[in-house]
Write a structure and sequence with these properties.
Distance between the termini: 36 Å
Radius of gyration: 25 Å
Structural class: mainly alpha
Helix content: over 70%
Number of strands: 0
Number of helices: 3
Strand content: under 5%
């Protein structure tokens, strides 16, 4: 498995775990507030959709971070390739031609 795939997998796993924890706690608190008559149903619907929007925003940030990390890895590989000395490339070509 490549470094990019491993990083992408762990970031996706982290994202899923954070969504589960964050949403679970938020929805539990909201449901308990409704059951205890601390908020009305209309406020519950408002807060429920706000939690969903917040979750979407945080997931987007985490996914953008994963994309940025992948681009960084690809750029590092390209820089390593471009920094490869020309003499070594020329010597390898001569050896393969002989």
């Amino acid at each position: 498995m490549s470094k990019y795939s491993e990083d992408n997998f762990f970031i996706s796993l982290l994202d899923g775990f954070l969504i589960l924890i964050r949403d679970g706690i938020a929805y539990f608190v909201l449901i308990m507030m409704v059951i205890n008559n601390e908020i009305a149903i209309d406020d519950f619907v408002l807060y429920f959709s706000s939690v969903g929007a917040f979750t979407g925003t945080l997931s987007s940030i985490i996914n953008q971070f994963a994309s940025l990390n992948a681009t960084s890895l690809i750029t590092c590989d390209l820089r390593d390739f471009l920094d490869y000395p020309e003499k070594k490339i020329a010597q390898k070509r001569k050896k393969t031609m002989i």
